[in-house]
């Protein structure tokens, strides 16, 4: 069987505080709205900007981390997979594209948070611990390897 890959990586800012809910089976899920932007200069020399909004869902322990440490405006790295779904309301079929996060890294620097978080942190949904990284590893956006 041929191999396939469904992977997405986003670096952006939260458009609102995480919304956490509990499913009928008791699983916690945090919904995030992440904005990514790109800028360019058009043919007329005018600076242009376009913002894309991404619906992101974080499950289980990752949802707990999002609820506790994230708020509107925070910069995050999200890694996960793309899911497509549809629903019907009033005879209209609506289509949705979601990102199911497997990893989330907080990219805020020192002094940007008022709580006890001194630097970025990561939480893998399959793991049970949270690791702190030094800000030197994330010195500037241009230094990121992707």
What are the secondary-structure elements, in order, as H or E? EEEEHEEEE
CATH homologous superfamily caption: Nucleic acid-binding proteins
**Form type:** globular
Low-confidence stretches: 113-144
* Architecture (CATH level 2) name: Beta Barrel
Q: Sheet bearing the most strands, described?
A: 5 strands, mixed, barrel
- What structural category do the secondary elements indicate? mainly beta
Please describe what this structure looks like.
The two termini are 29 Å apart. The model is unreliable at 113-144 (pLDDT under 50). This protein has a five-stranded mixed beta barrel. It has 146 residues and is mainly beta. It contains one helix and eight strands. Helix content is 6%, strand content 51%. The chain is globular and about 55 Å long. The longest helix has 9 residues, at 61-69. It has one domain (8-39, 48-127): OB fold (Dihydrolipoamide Acetyltransferase, E2P) (Beta Barrel), CATH 2.40.50. It has one helix at 61-69; strands spanning 8-14, 19-22, 28-41, 47-59, 75-89, 92-106, 121-124, 131-132.
């Amino acid at each position: 069987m041929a191999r396939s890959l469904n992977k997405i990586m986003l670096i952006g800012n939260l458009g609102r505080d995480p919304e956490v809910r509990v499913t009928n089976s008791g699983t916690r899920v945090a919904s995030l709205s992440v904005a990514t932007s790109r800028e360019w200069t058009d043919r007329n020399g005018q600076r242009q900007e376009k913002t894309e909004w991404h619906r992101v869902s974080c499950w289980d322990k990752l949802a707990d981390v999002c609820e506790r440490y994230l708020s509107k405006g925070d910069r995050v790295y999200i890694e996960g997979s793309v899911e497509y779904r549809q629903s019907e309301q009033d005879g209209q079929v609506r289509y949705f594209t979601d990102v199911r996060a497997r990893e989330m890294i907080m990219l805020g620097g020192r002094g940007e948070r008022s709580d006890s978080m001194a630097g970025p942190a990561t939480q893998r949904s399959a793991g049970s611990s949270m690791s702190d990284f030094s800000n030197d590893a994330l010195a500037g956006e241009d230094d990121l390897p992707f």
